[in-house]
C-alpha cells in the first residue's frame, strides 16, 4: 500500500467516501471518468472498495443496505487524533452524531455526524490508513466546500470543533469563508442564501482535479450522469458541477496554475 506516512493535522479533510445502491455500476462510472481502479476493504464497512490512482488511495465507495433509502452524496472526512472526543465535541457544539464512533478494522476509527445546519461529514482517526494520497493529480479530490445558506453560524460550529482560523472574503455580494490551519487553506464555507437547492439543503461539495473540464462534462453525461453547472472560469480555475448516475453531486476543476 502506497500512502503518505505523515498524519494530517486535525481538522484537515483527509478522505472522501460515497455510499451508493449499485456498487458495481458506480465503480464503472468513476473508473471511466477518473481512471480509478479498486481494492476491497475494510470488511467492517460491509461491501466497500477503495479507489486507487497509480497505486495511491484517493477515495472510498461503499454499498448501502437495500432497506436504507439515504441520500447518495460524497462525504468528506476530517482528520482527528481522537474520534471519540471529536464526536463528543460535535454534540457539544450543536451538531449530531449518526454513526459511530466505530473501528474500521486496523485502518482507523471513524464517526459520521452532521453540523449545526445539518450538513453531513465524517471524522477519521488514522491507524494504518492515513487517508488520501497523491493529491493534486487529475482524478484526486483537491478541495471541499460547505454549501449553506450563510456562513456566520455554521462557521462558529467548525471553529468550535477544530482550531480553524476563519478568513472571510471581503465582498459585498459574496458570503465566503476559508477555513485555515497552520496558515494553510484546507476547506471553504460558501453562503448562497436562497439559491441553495431545497432538495439538497446544506451539504459538502467535493472538487476533483481533472485535465479537461469541458471534456469531463461531456463524458459524465455519456456515462449516465448529469451536468448541473456548465463549465466556467473562476479565480481558482475552470470548473463544472455534475452528478453521477445515482445523483451524487460533485465538481470537477482544472486548478489555475
UniProtKB/TrEMBL annotation:
Coiled coil spans: none
Xref: InterPro entries: Anthracycline_SecMetBiosynth, Glyas_Bleomycin-R_OHBP_Dase, Glyoxalase_6
CDD domains to which the protein is assigned, alphabetical: SgaA_N_like (cd07247)
Pfam families for the chain: Glyoxalase_6
Membrane-spanning parts: none
Glyoxalase-like domain boundaries: 149-253
Full protein name: VOC family protein
Organism for this UniProt entry: Streptomyces luteolus
Amino acid at each position: 500500500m502506497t500512502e503518505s506516512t505523515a498524519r494530517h493535522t486535525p481538522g484537515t479533510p483527509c478522505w472522501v467516501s460515497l455510499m451508493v445502491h449499485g456498487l458495481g455500476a458506480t465503480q464503472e462510472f468513476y473508473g471511466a471518468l477518473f481512471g480509478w481502479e479498486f481494492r476491497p476493504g475494510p470488511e467492517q464497512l460491509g461491501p466497500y472498495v477503495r479507489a486507487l490512482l497509480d497505486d495511491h488511495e484517493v477515495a472510498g465507495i461503499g454499498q448501502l443496505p437495500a432497506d436504507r433509502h439515504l441520500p447518495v452524496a460524497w462525504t468528506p472526512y476530517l482528520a482527528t487524533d481522537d474520534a471519540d472526543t471529536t464526536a463528543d465535541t460535535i454534540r457539544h457544539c450543536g451538531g449530531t452524531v449518526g454513526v459511530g464512533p466505530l473501528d474500521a478494522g486496523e485502518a482507523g476509527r471513524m464517526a459520521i455526524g452532521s453540523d449545526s445546519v445539518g450538513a453531513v461529514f465524517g471524522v477519521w482517526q488514522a491507524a494504518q490508513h492515513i487517508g488520501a494520497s497523491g493529491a493534486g493529480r487529475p482524478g484526486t479530490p483537491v478541495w471541499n466546500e460547505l454549501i449553506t445558506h450563510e456562513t456566520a453560524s455554521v462557521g462558529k460550529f467548525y471553529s468550535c470543533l477544530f482550531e480553524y482560523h476563519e478568513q472571510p472574503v471581503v465582498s459585498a455580494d459574496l458570503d465566503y469563508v476559508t477555513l485555515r490551519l497552520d496558515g494553510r487553506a484546507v476547506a471553504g464555507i460558501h453562503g448562497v442564501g436562497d439559491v441553495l437547492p431545497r432538495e439538497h439543503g446544506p451539504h459538502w461539495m467535493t472538487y476533483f482535479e481533472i485535465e479537461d473540464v469541458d471534456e469531463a462534462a461531456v463524458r459524465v453525461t455519456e456515462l449516465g450522469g448529469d451536468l448541473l453547472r456548465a463549465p466556467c472560469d473562476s479565480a481558482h480555475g475552470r470548473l463544472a458541477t455534475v452528478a453521477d448516475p445515482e445523483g451524487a453531486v460533485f465538481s470537477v476543476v482544472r486548478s489555475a496554475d
